[in-house]
Alcohol dehydrogenase-like C-terminal domain-containing protein (Adineta ricciae), 72 residues
Amino acid sequence: MCYHFSLIRGETCVIFYAGPIGLLCLQAAVAADATHAIVVKISDKRLKKAREMDASLVINGKEESVPQQIKN
């Protein structure tokens, strides 16, 4: 749970989970003009929704190496 959200323009934000709260955090990151708003989830349905909401990168944590994908 996020109790305090502080994102400066140009920063990178990684969001684990893409449920309602995670997608709300994604929306806030996009609105704050984050350089990269990355979403990690294992549900293809939720990752599709994150793509539709302008996530700069979506990672299926079950199929891909999360640290490796973030580094790239």
